[in-house]
Amino acid sequence: xxxxxxxxxxxxxxxVGVLLALDDLQWATPDAxxxxxxxxxxxxxxxxxxxxxxxxxxxxxxxxAQHPFSQCIxxxxxxxxxxxxxxxxxxxxxxxxxxxxALAEHHGTTPDEDEAAIRxxxxxxxxxxxxxxxxxxxxxxxxxxxxxxxxxxxIPRDVAEMIRRRVxxxxxxxxxxxxxxxxxxxxTPVTLLASxxxxxxxxxxxxxxxxxxSGLLVEEVGDSCTFRHDLIREVVLADLSDVRKRxxxxxxAERLEADPRxxxxxxxxxxxGRGAETNRSVVYLExxxxxxxxxxxHAAAEGYYRDALAQLNDLGEVGASGRVxxxxxxxxxxxxxxxDAADALEEAASCYRQAGDRDGVGRVVAQIGWAHIRGGxxxxxxxxxxxxxxxxxxxxxxxxxxxxxxxxxAVLLFGQNRYLEQLASAQCAVKLARDANNTTALAQxxxxxxxxxxxxxKLDDALSVLLETIHVAQIAGDPDSFSAALNDTAAMYRARxxxxxxxxxxxxxxxxxxxxxxxxxxxxxxxxxxDNAYLLGKWGTARYHYGRAVAIVRGMGSSWVVPYPFISxxxxxxxxxxxxxxxxxxxEALTLARxxxxxxxxxxxxxxxxxxxxxxxxxxxALRRLxxxxxxxxxxxxxxxxxxxxxxxxxxxxxxxxNADAILTQxxxxxxxxxxxxxxxxxxxxQARLRTRQADWSAAGASIExxxxxxxxxxxxxxxxxxxxxxxxxxxxxxxxxxxxxxxEEALNICRRLGEALYxxxxxxxxxQTLDR
Length: 773
Hints:
Blueprint: H1 2-13, E1 18-22, H2 30-45, E2 52-56, H3 68-78, H4 92-105, H5 115-125, H6 129-141, H7 146-151, H8 157-168, H9 172-184, E3 187-188, H10 190-196, H11 201-214, E4 217-219, E5 225-227, H12 230-238, H13 242-258, H14 265-274, H15 278-294, H16 298-315, H17 318-334, H18 338-355, H19 358-374, H20 378-385, H21 391-394, H22 399-415, H23 419-436, H24 439-455, H25 459-476, H26 479-495, H27 499-513, H28 519-535, H29 539-554, H30 563-575, H31 579-596, H32 599-615, H33 619-626, H34 638-653, H35 657-674, H36 677-693, H37 697-713, H38 717-733, H39 737-754, H40 760-772
Parallel strand pairs: 1-2
Antiparallel strand pairs: 3-5, 4-5
């Protein structure tokens, strides 16, 4: 019979050749395999080469050497009549082509019916042709129904049955190993698998070897094994009862917990949860959330905390729920989601109240205050916080908790421009923190004391407190207070005109924020460092930092910090001649500042626009901008004094010389007392303009010489540019065209170096007029 088959195939092959394709040879009987060997040998030994070729496919499952298929391959290999090729899964391009071709065969289904379902099928099949064809049949059977098409990406029935058949061929112990591995995941450490299976060592080894031999599990390098394909694991899992799954999850979790090499919080939370061990699952969910927070994986951390809360609610653990809600609130605050943070913290306060934890209530209400100030809703924060500051409410709380409440009160008062009250609350917090020997609370409260002193114009006192705060925050290991104190110190040095020192401190603050989860701080510190770059004439660097700050606040929503980067970027745009963009940024910032009644932002932004209007001859408009922002009762405040030079300049342009003189004299007195050199510079330049108008050449010259020396001493090129422009105007008015030209030309050189275009047209016009004389 073997000869007859060989002759038949040879004659059939003579005209054009024959390709004999065989599949699943591992299932062939011994007789069939002997026939195959005989045919191949006969055709190979004929006088004339045969045109018969054989392609056979077999599973790459390891087989015993005595298996008929193994002997068949060995015999052919001995005669040099066989070559092997290992077929990898199809590439995505080839898999797509096969699936689309199969879909077209089956009732003309096209990818247009549901591309999403087809993409999912491609991903799940993993390039295995049998799986791909199974998905093709399932998809075509459900064509025309979008919901059913997506459902067709469940494991096709024929694929699932094939996998089940292979699983059932295994010994029961190997099936148990597969079940445990499937519950654990796609890849499982062998030592963990052995400890989780209720088998002796010999039984386990035999079972896992049987699973390897079946090709369902693959032995990896090192101590692990994996399922050959995700669909195998899914079928094994699907065939387990819920009771068995819970038992296996619990066994896996207990073995993970007992082994330090594998005791990671996330898998422990998962397996204990699936094993119906809620009390143990929630511990690891919270711990996993903490770990995700530490890695700045905010979305993951939020998910874990919310899962933990759902389980704690089922358990009725209000105290633990308060703790997790407090962590969730801190996380949301770090993400800039201040309203969500306040909601979570309010829930935490309610839980602590139910649990009778007064310290917990005070602690989270203090955080609620911070959420409100950062979210630009400081007035609501004050309303929420102040009822907790009564002696009756504070009684019984720890000093550290009371310090946190007074610190939150201080920062909320800062947001309301109530700096004297802020100072009192901050100093109260400082005393409580010292009594509690709590360096973290002390650093936070001292920083707010320094900030209040600075806003009140007491720059030397502010610097003394802030420099000590930096030291305390380092001892406490408190990066938030440390970075904030660095930035506030930079602001005080900037106001004093010590620009290089300010640059150094703002750079350090910015460096620390790289390790913080605080978008508000990052935005503000980027803007602050940009301000120093702007003053030092590094306008390219300034634009870079302003751009980073704007990108942060664009994604934040409501926050007190939002106006500041827009003000700074708007001022830079105006200075570089991008008038339309600059005005747009400034008006946007001022709208936000008015909404939150942020006087500091309003004074800075309106001053920038007022200077533009003064240069254009619109002094009345400039005065209308600035006058409402100056209150004689706030003359000691840093930002209030800063608007006075522009108000004095506006009165000068409106010929109110007496008013201008009085305002500038008062400004110089206050700014000199506070050593606020940036304000002194602006006031001296306005005073030089005034004395020029009064033809008091000696006084005008003294003022502008002092201003020019001050600008150069501060390394403030834009200030020097403005001073030289005014010096040129003074010289021209005093009939000294040579000196005027010299000052204008020096000013233009600085314009070119900076890329300045706001003052430049005025300087060029003035220079042209001196040359025409």
